[in-house]
Amino acid sequence: MMHTRSEPADREPDTSARPPLVRELLLVAGLFLVYKLGRQAANGHVEEAFSNAGHVWNFERAAGFPDEGTVQGALMHGRHLVEAANTYYATVHFPATLAFLVWLYLRRPHHYVWSRRILTALTGAALLLHLLFPLAPPRMLHAAGLVDTAQVYGPSVYGDSPAGDSMANQYAAMPSLHFGWALVVAVGLIVATRSRWRLLWLLHPLITLIVIVGTANHYWLDSLVVSALLSLAYAALHLPRTGGPAHLPWPGAVPAQAYASPVLARPGVRR
Hints:
The protein is mostly helical. The protein is 56% helix and 0% strand. The chain has one domain (45-240). 32% of the residues are buried.
């Protein structure tokens, strides 16, 4: 009788590796609270933020970066497209990250702890940079000649003016945590799952990059800086071993033993 190779069923999560729920709820809630309060703490450096914006814009042009206006022009070919980009910017960032953490906590406890530490390290480093390098986004920079698509087409997550916006710091463009968190979600899901399609999770940071640049909320450099910070976090916080091939770290060849049929693996059965 011929046996076909098939991927083994997903293993049950190791509940012993799952941290206490109440502690994790407090930690994650604290992470989001620090994110919001930390960005607000960087408010008030208006002149420095616009001066830095001019430096970033001039550096990108001197270094040969593509103009952010090219991406915005593509989005503004249709009203529905730019509205979809604004909606993605306003509604996906927090829910996608929270859903990612919840799923990892329930299904991949080892990977959850690792990803939560990565997010914490990245967010802390980014907030420190927000304080040290306030930066006005390109939508505020006259020299950029870009449209504030959220204000013109909606929806917008910011107030009508930075001075009257008490809920967010609009001068915290560098680095982009929108892009950084999207990368953490994509990499975390690629590492924690085994589907042959898991590389498609990279569409999330790719779409996020197009959205944050096309809506004039971030410069290209904001994404490069957060990627560098994330690389350092990954280098410092290694993925823990989970004791088997159930969760392969990266897409690639799976050992033949992982696919062998239990029947074929028995002694005395010919392959």
